[in-house]
User: Which sequence fits this backbone?
């Protein structure tokens, strides 16, 4: 197997495939196994050899690579330190810490500005990363004299950093989300909450600025929500699935933006999260902890813990109706396999947990206090992925960002001074939504 992998890689660098080497004698399954082990750039080159190999890579290898999670981005900060929080990476495929270090070196080399912090990291969606450089300091970001925010989309697999055309209305810090699925389209969208929910009213809608990579334009949309949805801020973490961007409200709602409507508008909806009528939940969560929303096997799930021991997992079925439906799938007592891994002096932090889901299997990723573990509820297998030894902590309310390799080559945009002064911003005046 190694022989064929080595031959394919060497010949690929010359743009040729030597069929007499034995490559053609391999079954398609074995060819896929070999190709999926190639570095990203040689695999992309392989698509140019012939139509049949282009089809093999695009239709078989890319979905397989896309479905395999490589690791988790997470936010950390030194204990009792005034330094800014940073992003780090935990590999889910190997216990060798050098793999995570090598990946972070690649990531930092792509960032086009110095000293990036966790606040610059906006989102990670199916292999693409959204960064923002707000330029200004905390003091001058409160006025309208700061330079507008500059967004970047990174693809570590293809080692690309794409500069997004600037919208001069983007002065103050706002949450921005990435909507991308390489199996759906090579294009992506950036969704920036221009008018946050806490500043909106029932007749004064939430404003979204949406950038589409296929048009290179920012378009403003207005989305109406009822007052109960607008009283609380929304989570920084989002999930994109089948044309819908999902994230959570600290007021106990699942927020939905339907991005691919036939008329090009953005439709909004909100569904009450399950489990809030639980007595222990009400005692523990004085301010509603939003929990986690994630995708696994093409379905949307919501995870949250009740008390200090039980993890509840619900499946969300959105049939297009106003109600939607939550189905409780699992209740897991995670203290049974966590307590003996954490020093007693850190037990007080075990209520503060972050979760993520594997995209194609039952595996759940959990961080508690100083560790990150994976747990398979089918086999009850527990793996330690990361343990802090240098006084790092995982922030209480920040989420994991699952990362998987993406082999889509992104297109650049011509960003001129004209873009910075007068961006191409189209206003969509139709406000759509529901509560």
Assistant:
């Amino acid at each position: 197997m190694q022989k064929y992998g080595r031959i394919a890689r060497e010949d690929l660098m010359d743009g040729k495939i030597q069929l007499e080497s034995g490559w053609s004698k391999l079954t398609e399954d074995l060819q896929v196994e070999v190709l999926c082990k190639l570095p990203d750039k040689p695999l992309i080159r392989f698509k140019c050899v012939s139509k049949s190999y282009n089809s093999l890579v695009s239709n078989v290898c890319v979905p397989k690579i896309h479905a395999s999670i490589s690791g988790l981005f997470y936010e950390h900060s030194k204990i009792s330190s005034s330094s800014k929080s940073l992003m780090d990476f935990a590999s889910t495929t190997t216990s060798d810490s050098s793999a995570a270090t090598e990946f972070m070196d690649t990531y930092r080399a792509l960032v086009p500005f110095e000293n990036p912090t966790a606040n610059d990291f906006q989102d990670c969606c199916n292999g693409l990363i959204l960064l923002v450089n707000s330029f200004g300091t905390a003091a001058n970001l409160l006025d309208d004299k700061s330079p507008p925010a500059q967004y970047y989309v990174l693809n570590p697999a293809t080692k690309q950093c794409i500069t997004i055309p600037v919208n001069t209305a983007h002065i103050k810090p706002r949450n921005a989300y990435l909507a991308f699925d390489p199996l759906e389209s090579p294009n992506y969208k950036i969704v920036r909450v221009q008018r946050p929910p806490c500043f909106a009213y029932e007749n004064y809608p939430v404003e979204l600025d949406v950038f589409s990579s296929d048009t290179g334009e920012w378009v403003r949309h207005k989305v109406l929500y009822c007052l109960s949805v607008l009283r609380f801020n929304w989570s920084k973490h989002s999930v994109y699935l089948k044309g819908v961007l999902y994230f959570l409200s600290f007021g106990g709602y699942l927020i939905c933006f339907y991005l691919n409507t036939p008329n090009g508008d953005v439709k909004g909806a909100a569904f009450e999260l399950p489990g809030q009528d639980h007595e222990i939940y009400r005692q523990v969560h004085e301010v509603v902890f939003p929990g986690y929303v994630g995708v696994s096997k093409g379905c949307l799930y919501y995870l949250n813990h009740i008390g200090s021991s039980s993890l509840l997992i619900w499946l969300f079925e959105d049939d297009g109706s106003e109600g939607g439906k939550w189905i409780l799938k699992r209740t897991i007592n995670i203290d049974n396999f966590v307590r003996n891994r954490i020093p007693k002096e850190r037990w007080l932090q075990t209520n503060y947990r972050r979760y993520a889901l594997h995209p194609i299997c039952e595996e759940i990723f959990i961080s508690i206090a100083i560790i990150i573990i994976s747990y398979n509820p089918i086999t009850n297998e527990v793996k330690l992925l990361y343990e802090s030894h240098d006084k790092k902590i995982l922030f209480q309310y920040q989420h994991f960002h699952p990362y998987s390799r993406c082999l889509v080559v992104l297109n650049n945009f011509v960003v001129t001074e004209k873009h910075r002064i007068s961006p191409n911003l189209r206003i969509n005046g139709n406000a759509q939504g529901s509560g």
Observations:
- The mean pLDDT is 77.
- The radius of gyration is 23 Å.
- The chain has eight helices and 25 strands.
- The CA atoms of residues 265 and 279 lie 40 Å apart.
